[in-house]
Specification:
The protein is mainly α. The chain contains twelve helices and no strands. The protein starts with 6 loop residues before the first helix and ends with a helix. Pfam families: BacA.
Length: 276
């Protein structure tokens, strides 16, 4: 017999979805913050299914915001395959190929090191990596690159790809690592942000597809379905708002505020890790 609806459990999942949504786009590590919630507050969600769910919500938010870019890249990619060779078509074809190449390092290392990375999640590690993230953001805070979408090279794609692979470590922000890598090779803010989040799509989509088996093998109960819907909705809305906010921050050149956040939270987490 199904238990009565648990509002506390529902709100917990909504809160986790909200945290995931807010922290996924901005460069402060969503995975790190979820580890901290589990370590310090004892708030966590069981199973891989939940992680897939909230990440898929963030993925949808990214797709909505970059929909026009995605459609243009897809059309021009097909046109290139079909033999069209205009300047814009060639540039967009190269952009797509660079995205594919940049996906490879994190994809391979993620599959090879999944268990190893999962075993070493800790508040202490997150705290240290937040400081590392803060340093990286601080170093590139004043970069004003001049590379636009059509100016990217194979070397740029490989560097950003390995930057994304580094973000497999809990506490290293995926968006932060890829933005640092992109701006480090000279991309302007808009191109760096676009490349970073279009790069998020294949990784997130791949994770979602790999997780279908887990969802089928462990279908959620009726109460959990409601909690999951709440978490999914919270993550979707929060991700959309957070990414739009980040676009504004990047446009104004105020990326340093996330560096300051990491410099404050990182040491605090390290100190607290010795008491929990």
């Amino acid at each position: 017999m199904e238990q009565l609806f648990d509002w506390i459990e529902f709100l917990k999942y909504v809160f986790l979805g909200l945290v995931q949504g807010v922290t996924e786009p901005i460069p402060i590590s969503s995975s790190g913050h979820l580890v901290l919630l589990q370590e310090f507050l004892g708030i966590g969600a069981k199973g891989f299914t939940f992680e897939i769910l909230v990440n898929t919500a963030s993925l949808i938010a990214v797709v909505i915001i970059y929909w026009n870019d995605i459609v243009q890249l897809f059309i021009h990619f097909l046109q290139y395959i079909g033999g069209k060779r205009s300047k814009e078509v060639i540039e967009d074809f190269k952009f797509v190929m660079y995205l594919i190449i940049a996906t490879i390092p994190a994809g391979i290392l993620g599959l090879l090191l999944e268990d190893f990375i999962g075993d070493y999640k800790s508040a202490l590690l997150v705290g240290i990596m937040l400081i590392v993230t803060g340093i990286a953001l601080w170093v590139i805070r004043n970069n004003r690159g001049k590379k636009f979408d059509g100016d990217l090279t194979l070397k740029d794609a490989i560097i950003v790809g390995f930057a994304q692979a580094v973000a497999l470590i809990p506490g290293i922000s995926r968006s932060g690592a890829t933005i640092v890598g992109a701006m480090g090779v000279g991309m302007n803010q808009k191109t760096a942000l676009k490349f970073s989040f279009l790069l998020y799509i294949p990784i997130s989509l791949g994770t979602a597809l790999l997780g279908i088996k887990d969802i089928i093998n462990e279908p959620p109960t009726q109460n959990m379905v409601i909690a999951y819907i709440g978490a999914f909705t919270a993550s979707l809305v929060a991700s959309y708002i957070s990414l739009k906010w980040l676009q504004g921050i990047m446009a104004k050149g105020n990326l340093f505020i996330f560096s300051l956040y990491c410099f404050i939270v990182g040491p605090l987490v390290i100190i607290l890790s010795f008491f929990f």
